Amino acid sequence: MMRFLRDTLIIAVFAGALTGFVLHEAAIGAVLAVVGGVMLSLASRGHKYMTFGGLVR
């Protein structure tokens, strides 16, 4: 369940980035894209902040 929530959060950030670009809010879209990239990178490495205290591996 926690993995589903984490993955949904990452997808939501990227969806927000795409929405920002479509609505011509490039600054917001760029920031959200960077945040999503960092979150995806941390999740793929199994970083403790993206595993909810070790509950998700």
Automatic annotation (TrEMBL):
Organism: Actinomycetospora corticicola
Annotated protein name in UniProt: Uncharacterized protein
Superkingdom of origin: Bacteria
